[in-house]
Amino acid sequence: MEKKFMGFSWSLVGVLVFIMILVAKPKSVDAITCQEALMSLIPCRPFLTGGASTPIPKCCSAVAYINAAATTPAIRRDLCRCFKKAGPGAGVVPDKAKQLPRLCGVRVAVPIDPTVNCGSIK
Fold this sequence. Notes:
By secondary structure, the chain is mainly α. It has one domain (7-109). It has helices at 10-20, 34-40, 45-48, 57-69, 73-86, 94-104, and strands spanning 4-5, 8-9. Strand 1 and strand 2 (8-9) form a beta hairpin. Helix 1 (10-20) crosses helix 2 (34-40), helix 1 (10-20) packs across helix 6 (94-104) and helix 4 (57-69) packs across helix 6 (94-104). 41% of the residues are buried. Residues 1-31 form the signal peptide. One of its GO terms (molecular function) is lipid binding. Belongs to the plant LTP family. Pfam families: Tryp_alpha_amyl. InterPro entries: Bifun_inhib/LTP/seed_sf, Bifunc_inhib/LTP/seed_store, Plant_nsLTP.
């Protein structure tokens, strides 16, 4: 059974975080854990599942936060693995996930794609 927090699926949040760990220009911030990243992305759920046409400002703030916190290739790879593991079955619309970085003004280093090899992230 899928664990839920306040009605939100952990796997959906995982897919969102996956998007953010691939950011090209990370900023210096303390390392972020998988759980912290997943919790940060809860505001993105309506957009990613197709329930909203645009992400809300809190969602984009979460994207920026995760971008800043993914300071090393190792952290980005760990978050990628976390999100890939949490993502299946979350109801995320792939096209929405691909749109999120652009709509939030975040540039990513690699394509947002569930088939990305997390080990190749730099």
